[in-house]
Amino acid sequence: METAKVTQTVKFESIGYTLKANIRQYAMLIALVFIMFFFQIATNGILLVPMNVTNLILQNSYVLILAIGMTLCILTGGNIDLSVGSVAAFIAAIVGKLIIEMKMNVATAIITGLLMGVVIGVWQGFWIAYIRIPAFIVTLAGMLLFRGLTNTILKGLTLSPFPRSFQSISSGYLPDFFPAISGFNLTPIVFSAIFSIFLMLTQVKKRRAKIKSNTGVMPPVLFISQLLLIIVAVNLFACSLAAYKGIPIILMILLALIAGYHFFTTKTVPGRYIYAMGGNERAAQLSGINTNRVLFFVYLNMAVLSAVAGIVFAARTDSAFPLMGSGFELDAIAACFIGGASATGGVGTVIGAIVGALVMGVLNNGMSIMGIGSDWQMTIKGFVLLMAVAFDVLSKNRAK
Amino acid sequence: MVILEMKNISKYFGPVKALDNVNLKVTAGEIHALVGENGAGKSTLMNILSGVYPYGTYSGEILFQGEKCAFRSIRESERKGIAIIHQDLALIPYLSIAENIFLGNERAKWSVIDWEKTRRDAVSLLEKVGLKENPNVLIKDLGVGKQQLVEIAKALAKEVKLLILDEPTAALNEEDSDNLLRLLLELKRSGITAILISHKLNEVIKVADAITILRDGTTIETIDLRDGEINEDRIIKGMVGRELTDRFPKRQPKIGEVYLEIKNWTVYDPKIEGRKVIKDVSIRVHRGEIVGISGLMGSGRTEFAMSIFGKAYGRQISGEIIKAGKKLAINSIQNAIENGLAYVTEDRKNAGLILISDIRQNISLASLNKISKRGVIDDTEETRVATEYRSKLNIRSSSIYQKIQNLSGGNQQKVMLAKWIFAAPDILILDEPTRGIDVGAKYEIYTIINQLAEEGKAIIFISSELPEVLGLCDRIYVMNEGRIVGELTKEDASQEKIMRCIMQSMQNNRGVL
């Protein structure tokens, strides 16, 4: 028997092509690095001291969670959810009531809160997906409705304090699994080392598969430098966590959510349905996709994530108060658009929204350290949002 | 007298040369047809002429009425009396006919609209184009044929000297097309010059005085029809650069047993209460057979096909679908796909493809369960499938990652076919699969359809182009006003017979009324 010899030349994409194809994704990432660099200097290095790095995560956790869900909403066709802040507050109020006033067990109270999120999702999803009232209107109504209910439950007062176990969701840290070295927590380093090896192996495997199937791959230089850059960034981040108190519990929740939803949107069939629906709903329907169900699921999911954000925020502020969460919806929406989502749907990524949320978070944090008032912070954030989307629109026009 | 001369026009899009020293000379008062395959550069040339691509983005010279032109916008070319009517009409659906006619050209003093004059002028313009409608009627309530006439009235309102029409009859039925062509001849008599871009060569021959043929961005030749009659094959030869001895690929039909039967199919309009769209239709299709459904636009062909395909259209649907002797109850599109049906839509941009997405994801969209395990998509498999179909159907593209919106019409159509062939149906309904695509791509699509029939699939082929139905189908149903009004075998069928079926049914209906 003879085996046929296959000679194959590897198809490399040019560096220019790779950069151009990914310019939107990379541009925001580069902007993020640039912004961090700027504030690192402007704050005399305070931005990236270990304590502040941890703080950045804790401060922005709820916006990150909401931005994930909001990405899915926007993907279905530029639909947004205005009710997320109010829903978060409503759930926080319920959980606060259950734990603080009714002395319910923390775990049971959290599960009840999440189930309430499901109920709210079913309610809003029904109107949006099956009655087809524009999402904008349903969630505007939800924004008022759940804010009102929050006030009713809290009777206009603040509920506080929560037990320690509840607070630890947002302020607790993973225990150090390794013998203590004075003031240095080894766990994050071990985690990031494992992650680095895992990343290297999977990326190389993926690249091999691509070469085998003869689809274009990045040139080696770019591939290696990209991989190295990620690994260095992750390890630096881990070191800075290690130098403070270790891995915050909320970070684990966040990473799980980001990884899970990234996988969901890029690798699964329902994830593909969401993109298809946003790209061309009629074509998706004629391909056998039940777009009503997709829309329903997306808003159900958003309400549950709002509930998660509400619980996380309550744990962080150690209270439930009538005005909590107002403005969250706008932060989450802005994060998605800064992260490259299209206002007409079908384009956008979870990772993009995370980058967008981090851009906003670093701006907030950096300006606060510099002592810039919240009035100017808002102005600058508005400007950044406009510039990011303008960049998007202009680069698309040029591509045509 | 020469009214327009375009000399040595060249235009690049990035590194791609779209036009290469194109020359066009149009005599005043003639209808000048511009023909060529898709991508030959017809639209690009007209966009340069009308100022869509401003002066400076191309090289060459434009002389209009002996004057050198350097248009920087559509407004500038309009001021000179050049008006272009695009394939996709540019009317505002929720404004009235009169408002649309004078859009951007309002009958106004100091920006305050004179409604009396607007109405009066609109009435006289509508008379000129032969449209009997109240000028206050909203555009959305008009059919495509009438909208086309409004577009022409709009151009006339600007005192047009040179009218450019880009595929004006592509979306019209025969009657409306004839009307439009008659209007063109009338306008010619009143001294208006026209450039007509069209794929329909029979129309071109009917009305044009001269034909310029473009191929691959260059001028091939200009034929003066006043020097004597020519036939379509002569033009096609110029367009494709070779003799197309046979426009339809040969096939030896191997027709098997009856595979699909539709019985007493009745469908009501989803919007208008009590209006029947499909009336008691029964058809049957054999394995390996290509069955045509012919009929004018609006005869209910698309509605019929979509109502079979998982009730994608209509309501109160009644009737039976029997496949291989078994009665099916199909209630959703997903159901229809699972039962081996596929419907390739006539409207590829709005209902068929995800334009912002790539070839790969469009091909897999209707069969994601085939390339996934427990809901997780197998990337490698998806890539393999897309690569396979790209080469099998000869989809011309840079790679499987190319966006659909950057493909030509013919290649988009092939992606849609690939998507449904990959879904592996037993019964394929093809709705206008060759609309708006060029001669070469048509031939390729016919070949694909023949192969599918060869594999034993049952094929329903819907088309407005009679020669195509006659050339491809083994049996033809003629449909009119929601009814089957005739059934012809391949040997029996001719254009005249099909038209006669339609005409007779119209007379019968009128008799009843």
Short description:
The complex is a heterodimer of chains A (400) and B (513). By secondary structure, chain A is mostly helical.
Q: Which secondary structure elements does this structure contain, and how are they paired or packed?
A:
The complex is a heterodimer of chains A (400) and B (513).
Chain A (H helix, E strand, L loop, with lengths): L14 H7 L1 H20 L7 H26 L8 H18 L4 H25 L4 H20 L9 H8 L15 H26 L7 H24 L5 H19 L1 H11 L1 H6 L4 H27 L10 H11 L11 H21 L3 H26 L1
Helix pairs in contact in A: 2-15, 3-9, 3-10, 3-13, 3-14, 3-15, 4-5, 4-6, 4-13, 5-13, 7-13, 8-9, 10-11, 11-13, 14-15, 14-16, 15-16
Chain B lengths: L1 E12 L2 E12 L3 E5 L6 H8 L9 E6 L2 E2 L5 H6 L2 E4 L11 H5 L6 E2 L2 E2 L1 H15 L14 H14 L4 E5 L7 H16 L3 E5 L3 H7 L2 E6 L2 E7 L7 H9 L17 E11 L7 E11 L3 E5 L6 H8 L6 E9 L2 E3 L4 H6 L2 E4 L3 H5 L6 H6 L7 E2 L2 E2 L1 H14 L16 H14 L4 E5 L7 H16 L3 E6 L2 H7 L2 E6 L2 E7 L5 H18 L1
Parallel strand pairs in B: 3-10, 3-11, 6-9, 9-10, 15-22, 15-23, 18-21, 21-22
Antiparallel strand pairs in B: 1-2, 1-4, 4-5, 7-8, 11-12, 13-14, 13-16, 16-17, 19-20, 23-24
Helix pairs in contact in B: 4-5, 14-15
What does this structure look like?
The complex is a heterodimer of chains A (about 400) and B (about 525). By secondary structure, chain A is mostly helical. Chain A has helices at about 15-20, 25-40, 50-75, 85-100, 105-130, 135-155, 165-170, 185-210, 220-245, 250-265, 270-280, 280-285, 290-315, 330-340, 350-370, 375-400. Chain A is about 75% helix and about 0% strand. The model of chain A is unreliable at about 1-10 (pLDDT under 50). Helix content of chain B is about 35%, strand content about 25%. Chain B has three domains: about 1-240, 3-Layer(aba) Sandwich (Rossmann fold), CATH 3.40.50; about 250-340 and about 425-513, P-loop containing nucleotide triphosphate hydrolases (Rossmann fold, 3-Layer(aba) Sandwich); about 355-425, no CATH class. In chain B, strand 7 (about 110) and strand 8 form a beta hairpin. Chain B is of the alpha/beta class and about 525 residues long. In chain B, helix 4 (about 115-130) packs across helix 5 (about 145-155) and helix 14 (about 410-420) packs parallel to helix 15. The radius of gyration of chain B is 24 Å and the shape is globular. The termini of chain B are far apart. The interface of A and B includes residues 209 and 280 of A.
